[in-house]
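#structure-requests
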Amino acid sequence: MSDKLKPRLLVVDDDLGVIAAYRLVLEKVSGGAVQSLFGLDVLESELFGTKQLDEPPLEWRVKFLDQGIDAVKAVQWAIDDNDPFTAIFLDVRMPPGIDGYEAAEQIRKIDANVHIVIVTGYSDYTEEDFIEIAGPQSHLTYMPKPVWPDQLRNVARILASETKEERWSGGLKLIAG
């Protein structure tokens, strides 16, 4: 599959340790080398009872950013390039710049179709607040941290594999916790 045809995911979190965790969960499926090199696939299977080794490889591209304003710019560039993101995994608290709430609001104005996944350990905003500025609800998922690798990978898999019609028909409503 051509790279431009693969769904694009955007991960935005100010904590570089969290970004590293996202990389292990989301990039191992396409490259596999990092995961296998450290034996993390076997360890994950033993610890969490997952069968990741039997899963078919996923086909997506992931971009990682650490600030909300950079996410807004990336979404605009992707739209301008006619290669929009399928989903955005967005933290809420990201000092010193704009927070995830403001980023989600600006992103929704740029791209009405992108699915925004709010992934946060603590937020000054409720899920309803996000629906109001970044809805509709069918385009929004709220996942409180901590998120298990399988949960994150499954949400990414659903969003990357379903057609827009399937994804938006009833909304992806996953509350991790």
